[in-house]
């Protein structure tokens, strides 16, 4: 027996404010640009897509933003989430490292996504919006928004990447149980979808295409808005409850992280955990290495360029300065659906360019091996996305075994795999392949970047 | 905002003893009998199937049994489990009742089953057993035992009722991720399975048949034992951690339950929550009504007889005095797989005969309607089994709405539905049917009861 397993906070210790890292950075991130004028977009440009409260949060200069009571009331269904000490994994690895994981799988849909879905639905409902549209890949985000819309009485319409729609029917069933309508993307319901289908009738879709469809539908109806599950500043803002809680829980544990690892698709899980720790680091109160882990099959930070690009495939969004593989990039149908996005949060990209975090890309078989190892030791089967963070965590723990260092590692376990078990089946059945991503393929996609700005 | 949502206990408040209700009952339950001699079975009769420690617990006269440190260490991965006040469901129902639910879905496999799987695997490993066999229906029990075997380094072989094996592939994937081997039952690996297949080549199986197969395999190998996920005294004993925690949590809440409802298949979830409260009731310290809820399609308590019967279909087990529909009864393939058992825990049956609890049988559509209502209010999609308890909870809350009574209702939410979502799909798609269970069908199965004892 080796001390405490979980570090729990009382409901009364749940954060009451979100943390906005932008004022604490040495310089602000470059603004989104209007694709026509190449000028920074203003609130009016975004009004067809987002409610005023979220537009204000997107550009806020305040360091802290109050979490509305109504949102806190829903957060309390699962927050504060637990911080675990992974005693059993440590023993299985024989490492002197101390491994902690912050577990977001306790939420209604089993991931960190409701942390932002709930406030997004709340602000939309408060401003009289009656329906939200969105895209989803593996379905974590779509089910989070479906849940949040059920709570605040909004309609919810989801375009799900067809590859996932077909392979992971349980996510669709979860969204429908919460009352949402789900379409496979590309669909024939939108101009964007029909354009893709005309050229590629068998298209299995991409997040970029699904975003185009959801954006198009929202823009066409004055009572409908669009909700995005990652990438944007306000989304990362909402996720900082993860890191704020983890800071308090490390105080309970009497420990301080030396290395923080999280997986990155659009960046919200990683930013949510990392930003409050980065604040402490910028203030000189701690000095952890902070590391983003992405799939080798979709390596926007490690192999993409830092440039203005569209957030979606059809080019309907503002131009975002970010690490991108090009908005036409279609990643291999790897099993970590939430990490298959051509771009990266502009805020996180900026922080990476400032040298405040590092990044690494890992192959998926190594990630699933880490996932199985973790499951058999700790009892939780990790979602495919956080297996990337766990694989890096295992690498770091095994380096400590070599050197004898007693490093403290914190990893973001952003969800469980209950609805992604076929991916584990593929891994255990030996059907999972690590595709090489040829340089030419990246170059081809990058050639389609919008004209230099 | 309406006060606390969750009542959490610290790890240090986790129960360190299981509660054995038998010494507190006005009379002990009738013993299991050897099917040949019709005499009470002794430890030697059970030794081929169970380790000595569990056989001792099965017949123990002690009121409290210490939980080994190694078991507590694993329990701490998810225990103490939360008690919730269902504020949002109360508001949705407009009831003056106060509704609480004890949530066991936080466990590694999403149900209460690991509470007994972990000690069963521990005691077997300590006595040198290298492999456990078991049966499973929907798969909650099989995945719990697979997890527990992974923790203590045992092999695990599971016979899963074919109807569930085919319809719910995710559970099989979970068991395999934890390292278990899974066979559909009836299988051609056992005499019992081959006998069924010879007569019914398309058999979709039953828990009774799967038990026969697992028991047969365990009895044939001296290093293998069998593990049962419900029904027996030691299983209900292990589950009392649920009720012991809930008692402490009600103290935190400053409330006392007037009605306790739980679903019953074999009886372990219900007994686990109810027995510590029943102890308090027998001692005159509180006076809740305690109600078992079973499916109308498999109503062992409400329409079965109280008689000695086999626990399995092939007649390999001792004879158990219990409420039974007859060991040849094959229930409709309803969607609450864990409640499709012909019998009922002998201990719980005895307590029912003593008049200490009551029981009701509900149709499955009403149960799923309650499940959807609960999910949209509270965020957790309940497993099909506990929707039965929730449906009764809704009935009780609506009665309070009529009468204005502010009853305190406690319900056992023994698991989530992540791996049972196709059942919700069937309900939402209008494909779920409430079958009537004709009296003749029950009479036919009861005619096969073993000769009167």
Automatic annotation (TrEMBL), chains A, B:
Keyword RNA-binding found: no
Enzyme Commission number, as recorded: 4.2.1.20
What is catalyzed by this enzyme?
A: (1S,2R)-1-C-(indol-3-yl)glycerol 3-phosphate + L-serine = D-glyceraldehyde 3-phosphate + L-tryptophan + H2O
- GO cellular component, as recorded: cytoplasm
Residue ranges of domain Tryptophan synthase beta chain-like PALP in the record: 77-415
State the oligomer form and interacting partners.
Tetramer of two alpha and two beta chains.
**Name of this protein:** Tryptophan synthase beta chain
Q: Which organism is it from?
A: Actinokineospora alba
